[in-house]
Amino acid sequence: MSYTPVAPIVTARLGYDDSYTLERAVATGAYTGLRHALTQTPEAVQDNVKLAVLQGRGGAGFPAGNKWGLLPAGKFPRWLVVNGDESEPGTYKDRILMERDPHQVVEGALICAYAIRASQAFIYVRGEMALAQERMAQAVNDAYANGYAGKSILGSEWSMDVTLTWGAGAYIVGDETGLLESLSGRRGMPLPKPPYFPAAIGLYGDPTIVNNVETVSNLPWIVLNGGEAYSALGVEKSHGTRMFAVSGHVKRPGVFEVELGKLSFRDLFYDERLCGGIRDDRRLKAFIPGGGSAPWFYEEHLDLPLDPSVIGPAGSMLGSGAIVVMDETTDMVRAAWRLVRFFANESCGKCTPCREGCAWMQNIYERIMAGHGRVEDLALLEDVGSNISPGVYPGAGAHPGDPAIPFPPKQTTICVLGPSAVAPVTSSLRRFRDEYLAYIDGTKAPTIGTGSR
Amino acid sequence: MSRLSPERVALAQEIMGRFPVPRSALVPLVHLAQEQDGYVAEDAMEHIAELIGCTPAEVYGTATFYEMFKFHPCGKYVVSICTNIACLLLGADELLEHAERSLGVRAGATTEDGTITLEDVECIAACTLAPCIQVNYRYFANQTPESFDALMADVRGGKLDAEVPPHGLLARVRPHIDPAKWAGTGTAPPPTAERFPGPALTESDRADIQGAKTQGAGTQGAKTQGASRRRR
User: Fold this and answer.
1) Are B219 and B225 a contacting pair, CB within 8 Å?
2) A453–B25: do the CB atoms touch at under 8 Å?
3) Alpha-carbon distance A40 to A280, whole Å?
4) Is B57 on the interface with A (CB under 8 A)?
5) What is the pLDDT of residues A217-247, one digit of tens each?
6) Domains, chain A, ranges and CATH?
7) Domains of chain B, with CATH numbers?
8) Interface of B with A in 152-191 (CB under 8 A)
9) What is the pLDDT of residues A325-337, one digit of tens each?
């Protein structure tokens, strides 16, 4: 495979320094998509998005058009919530979109609200993103002042209120039911689903659509250029372009918008126009293909295409488009511990297997890294993991060539946070068992509890 | 320390007015309280409970779920060092250790002069700028121990005051909507066909859209042209 750049869709405006201002946005075509949408019926807009096969960009990848179709007919009020509570380790595409092109987010939210006949749209921005909140607030204020939002949008008879709100630091609020709880003024703890999905019973018990910031940012382009043009991009089962945030041990980390399925991880990491290779030309040891929740990939997966339909059977996911690259110098036990510690910190505490399991896994890790580990601890880690996610956890094999167990995992918890904490444990244990054993038998010096961290 | 000031009560009413259900404003209102005192005071939580019509325990119970809310006075500047995976790979642990030594406090504590609260935080969504830190939720990228010390000197010297507001004030731009433009769609009766009329624009609007579409919206030029026609 080789990389051929395509015209960007959601990042088209980012080249301008003042891309976040109303003047620049309007001069480069912002709100044209909304204008066009308003000449059609909401159903026509929805059909267009179904044709585009726009898969949700938040992580689960459920097609947006189909999600909208789950709304019970004739039931009002119904709400649109745009999820900008991006907190997955490694991910920051939504922050870029909200900071640099907030009008595109507002326009996308309005198009979505029109298509689903929403009663009101809410945009929820993560608490820690102060600049994104400022830019979004300015964009919403400007949109109201210039007739793009509020009463009689663009002189039509259609009115829609857009309410900006923000969180206060909780990873789990990125889950759609957790987000709706937070938006209702409660602790952001996820709710069981099924039986009821937010499309049927969501915010205030009414039908609700929750879409990611990047998902709605695609809508203006789709409305203007047609669903077929969008689905023509990408490959058979994965359409359009996607933003990938590559971080860690690469020479040029950054966010890249690329066509889905048309390039491989190797292209992404080594192409001079993209990441430009591994830092100091070292060897790749492992990489996380889809944010902290995803099982890890190794060198033999470099040639897989960036296509969710291929990544799933290979044992992982593209998730939120966050790719973390680890070179040969990385301490895999420490890397896994850090992710486990993250999930233990962020567990909302609702489901016992996750609340207790993540914390115990963290404790076991700290014991091993402090030099007090036992060989049985490795089996214990797997056992705790299988209480959160029963059965063999998905992922690539212990050795190159071993069969992969397809993603997604089973779970004993309401949301996927618990199983996510198992991903780094099994990924590192299967492949780098000797690194754990080195801590345990004392050939590697303890790295915590020694006065340093 | 105190209940919300009259100006903040007015702001709180404005925020609540943008939701169909007042309780939805709980998190933004607690932010207002934190903005006033630098932390979330008990009296302020009681006041918020009165405003949104729930019990103080519900406000406290909800607010404590969120990590950004502090329930004890903290420094004027909260310095958050990310130690999650991407920053860890590029030396965040060493940076945190240095920060603890140079500030003389452990993560979670406030310096003796009450200026700086040091925090060890999870991913703050700036992974390509690793190791990255935030000062009152403003980003400072690619930190080294040396640049960290220089930054702290600037913070203490007040050199960043234009860029970084005191702890508690998140966004300096507030959503503010002219009541005349607020449509009230969230509390309006169920929408009917009349509220979603479909074609509702003038012929010239449609010509513009057609123009933008057929000329290929992918090109900047076509978009600019269409937009300038409309603006005249």
Assistant:
1) no
2) no
3) 54
4) no
5) 999 999 999 999 999 999 988 999 999 999 9
6) 15-232 (3.40.50.11540), 241-327 (3.10.20.600), 332-441 (1.20.1440.230)
7) 1-74+168-213 (1.10.10.1590), 77-156 (3.40.30.10)
8) 170-178, 180-186, 188, 190-191
9) 999 999 999 999 9
